């Protein structure tokens, strides 16, 4: 993982030390299960727990020697053990330990991600409500469409992150599985009861069936959900980048005291945070294709996925954690220029009310196509001549009175259902 984007506590979760400790906790849970089922002598697991050793440099030297990380781990862990060492890793294959421990790490990282996501949801909700009635122009295809509320824009982000929260909870459940089923997954040397008991102790569930490994579809789903959440962050960041363009300048990401925008141009305040978030979302997506390829292992397993996963899991969870924490900072400190929003809304001198005019004409008895053609011809003339659309409508549609015109060209008309939309999310 690139240090620059590694934050606590996600960073510590993926250290080699932490991983060795998880492996040991799996081995000890299995020993306890054997013992509880009366399959090994009483007291053995307690002795093993007491005498187990974790020593990183010893592990590394054993790994150099054996070129097999789990054998290196067993040699290290049992170095100070006596007779109890006989029952350590008894009937297990390496992946019983590796995969079960990996699930522990993925569940823990899900909890960290869920916490960061819940903070982000709170800030999005606050921002959305602060701007519930802030009028802004809605853009489709990048072109001014109709007035809307800035709060609704933010509420859309909130709703997407809510869906991501739900998906992340499901993904956590998908990876909350372990396997203690032996070399080819058929329990030839370890009874299913040991698996059930050991996994329960660890807060995991057994997969109903496994090969030598837990099926990589579990992991691929998890990574896909992480990447989807990252793409939600990217959507927010892209919007802010657009809104911060000089010609638009309706919002701006935080620019702290002492910060510099450009080494050449002292006046610059660039949306570097949002640009970074967009770049990281691209990296997050790249993990998805590798995760899908990892699903295709030979027969009862091959180990081609292992090297790739050494990048994917630490990097995907840490990168998304960083993205969520930074997006929260962005949302909490976003500057919103309401005056500029209004100014931009009026850039087309009333054209954004064209649908309202057309609907009024239909209400007054015109056919839809007649009304459309009339309004379009006036609107296209405005684009060319820069005339004021309301004045042109008043001149060409004499049967609309002043009061009707005022109401058509009132941007707050577009906010009448805003509370109704917000109410769908209240009390969550
Ligand atoms: O219980 C077993 O070990 C069974 C064995 N399968 C293995 N299961 C788990 N790990 C194994 C296996 N084989 C190798 N290794 C060791 O995994 C490490 C792979 O390193 P890398 O490709 O860099 O991620 C690297 O340390 C490898 O030595 C089998 O023959 O089916």
TrEMBL record:
Chemical reaction(s) catalysed: N(6)-(1,2-dicarboxyethyl)-AMP = fumarate + AMP; (2S)-2-[5-amino-1-(5-phospho-beta-D-ribosyl)imidazole-4-carboxamido]succinate = 5-amino-1-(5-phospho-beta-D-ribosyl)imidazole-4-carboxamide + fumarate
Name of the molecule in the record: Adenylosuccinate lyase
Signal peptide from the UniProt entry: none
EC numbers: 4.3.2.2
Native source organism of the sequence: Pseudothermotoga hypogea DSM 11164 = NBRC 106472
One GO CC term, this protein: cytosol
Pathway annotation from the record: Purine metabolism; IMP biosynthesis via de novo pathway; 5-amino-1-(5-phospho-D-ribosyl)imidazole-4-carboxamide from 5-amino-1-(5-phospho-D-ribosyl)imidazole-4-carboxylate: step 2/2; Purine metabolism; AMP biosynthesis via de novo pathway; AMP from IMP: step 2/2
Family matches, as PROSITE patterns: FUMARATE_LYASES
UniProt cross-references to InterPro entries, sorted A to Z: AdenyloSucc_lyase_C, Fumarase/histidase_N, Fumarate_lyase_CS, Fumarate_lyase_fam, Fumarate_lyase_N, L-Aspartase-like, Pur_lyase
């Amino acid at each position: 993982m690139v240090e620059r984007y590694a934050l606590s506590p996600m960073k510590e979760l993926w250290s080699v030390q932490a991983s060795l400790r998880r492996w040991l906790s799996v081995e000890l849970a299995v020993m306890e299960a054997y013992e509880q089922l009366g399959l090994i002598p009483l007291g053995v697991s307690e002795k093993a727990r007491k005498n187990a050793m974790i020593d990183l440099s010893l592990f590394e030297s054993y790994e150099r020697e054996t070129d097999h990380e789990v054998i290196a781990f067993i040699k290290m862990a049992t170095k100070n053990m006596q007779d109890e060492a006989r029952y350590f890793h008894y009937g297990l294959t390496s992946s019983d330990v590796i995969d079960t421990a990996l699930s522990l790490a993925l569940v823990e990282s899900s909890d960290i991600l869920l916490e960061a996501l819940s903070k982000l949801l709170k800030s999005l909700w606050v921002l959305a409500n602060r701007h519930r009635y802030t009028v802004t122009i809605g853009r489709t295809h990048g072109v001014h469409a109709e007035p809307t509320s800035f709060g609704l824009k933010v509420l859309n982000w909130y709703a997407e992150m809510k869906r991501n929260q739900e998906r992340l909870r499901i993904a956590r459940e998908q990876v909350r599985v372990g396997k203690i089923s032996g070399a080819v997954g058929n329990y030839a040397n370890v009874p299913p009861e040991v698996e059930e008991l050991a996994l329960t102790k660890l807060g995991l569930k057994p997969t109903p069936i496994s090969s030598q490994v837990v099926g990589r579809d579990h992991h691929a789903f998890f990574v896909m959900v992480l990447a989807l959440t990252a793409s939600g962050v990217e959507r927010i960041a892209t919007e802010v980048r657009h809104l911060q363009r000089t010609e638009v300048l309706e919002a701006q990401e935080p620019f702290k005291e002492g910060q510099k925008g450009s080494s050449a141009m002292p006046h610059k305040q660039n949306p570097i945070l949002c640009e970074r978030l967009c770049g990281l979302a691209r990296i997050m997506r790249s993990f998805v294709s590798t995760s899908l390829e990892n699903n295709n292992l030979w027969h009862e397993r091959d180990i081609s996925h292992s090297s790739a996963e050494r990048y994917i899991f630490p990097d995907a969870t840490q990168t998304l954690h960083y993205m969520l924490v930074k997006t929260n900072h962005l949302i909490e400190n976003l500057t919103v220029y309401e005056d500029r929003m209004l100014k931009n809304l009026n850039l087309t001198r009333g054209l954004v009310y064209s649908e309202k005019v057309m609907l009024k004409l239909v209400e007054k008895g015109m056919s839809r196509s007649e009304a459309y053609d009339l309004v379009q011809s006036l609107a296209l003339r405005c684009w060319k001549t820069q005339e004021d659309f309301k004045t042109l409508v008043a001149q060409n549609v004499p049967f609309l009175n002043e009061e009707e015109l005022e109401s058509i060209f009132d941007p707050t008309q577009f906010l009448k259902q805003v509370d109704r939309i917000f109410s769908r999310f209240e009390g969550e």
